[in-house]
Amino acid sequence: MNMLARSVCVLSMGGAAAGLLAAAAPPAMADPIADFYKGKRMTLFVGSAPGGGYDRYGRLVGRHINRYVPGQPKLVVKNMPGASGLVLAGHMYAKAERDGRVIAGLHNTVVTQEIFDRGQRYKSAEFNWLGSVNQLTTVCIASNQAKVQSWPDAKKMQLVVGGTGADTSSTNLVPAFLKTLTDGKIKIIKGYPSTTSVVLAMQRGEVDGLCGLGWDSLKAQAYHLLRDKKIKVIIQVAAKPHPELKGVPFVMDMAKSPDDVRVLQFLVARQYMGRPYVAPPKVPADRVAALRKAFDDTMADPKFQADAKKVRTPLSPIDGNEVERHIKKLFATPKSVIDRANEATKLEQSDVSKVKLKWLEVKGAKIDRIKKSNVFFLDGGRKVSASSRGAKILIGGKKVKRKALKAGMKCDITYLGDGDSARTITCAN
Fold it and tell me: So what CATH class is 360-427?
């Protein structure tokens, strides 16, 4: 065999061997989780209207978590307000798709409301808890115009606070049990559209204060008012004092008896999982594991942490397993404590009034500019703004989303006041 023939033979044998090796090599391992999510869309529901703490945290999580879900699906955030989060809890339990493409930020009150057995149509233990973004401290604040400027004052003089949402809203629950368990003289004016509306109502002198607002939300929404001493924190409500609230009375120190301390400890325990996230029941276990890991990885992501700092949204996350352990502890609370807590959170009719909202109306206002959800325009020659979040918006007689609003449009606008909520925005084409 000449040299050329030998070379061809060797090359042929080498090629055949390479082919055999290639045939023998195992195929690349498929990732069924990534294959499922790739090219799909996820939905993250928030159980409140746009604006406020739950919405702010939900949109923060929504900007990042899909990067850590295998397959990196697209994600949209949708609001499903109603009954202070209970509508969303019922939806996630009974109606949401159970394939891992739907998650939700629930209110931290959903577990205690179930324990109180107030007719809720879900079982907290059957949710797949992914984790919580923050551990919550709630506060009561008073306007610098109010007679009440401290919690001892509130035990002598009536403190009129604004409330939002249903009776299960923290802004109604917290003042109710503070009245019962610490002898605060509190009256609640219910029916404000948002905590932002209550803070603005405080500035207008309609109410003295607000109870049950998260310290994190207060800093994000009204930092300038704290800085300028136009509002004051008069009590902090949590399992332990917050390091940023030194000198502010702590709720456990205000209790009337050791039994009341135990009731308060149960009532504030929900705040340990202050901003919790879930997947529905019966989602496949491997997808739940992937979502939990995605949640944990998001919490550890420097980009996520920097984003949270930018929007003044504090983080103190706990994982899904820890949330589940905490829920089991809540359900193990003695019945005597639960019964007392249940009674303490019920609103007495004599302590509650319905707000009479004073809607303002301006005709043919030209929209000067739009910044996020805020629409800027002139009312009687005065520069004002109103939030379009939750407003009914019509353009040319057709209902549209708020992103359809543009500078230069002439609109009839019904709103509560400068910087407050709009109810309707009706514009020409």
Answer: mainly beta
C-alpha triplet 259, 263, 266: angle, nearest 5° = 140
**Beta strands per DSSP E along 66-127:** 74-79, 102-105
- Residue-wise pLDDT tens digits, 65-116: 999 999 999 999 999 988 889 999 999 999 999 999 999 999 999 999 999 9
CATH, range 33-135+274-316: 3.40.190.150
- Kindly state the DSSP code that residue 70 receives in the 8-state scheme: T
Q: What is the C-alpha separation between 299 and 317, in angstroms, rounded?
A: 7
Largest CA distance in the chain: 114
> In 95-214, where does DSSP find H-type helix?
110-115, 151-154, 170-182, 195-204
Q: Are 404 and 398 in contact (CB under 8 A)?
A: no
Q: CA-CA distance, 419 to 320, in Å (whole number)?
A: 38
Mean pLDDT rounded to a whole number for the chain: 91
Q: Under CATH, what is the fold of the domain 138-270+345-354? A: D-Maltodextrin-Binding Protein; domain 2 (3.40.190)
- Going 271 to 272 to 274 to 280, the CA torsion angle's sign is negative
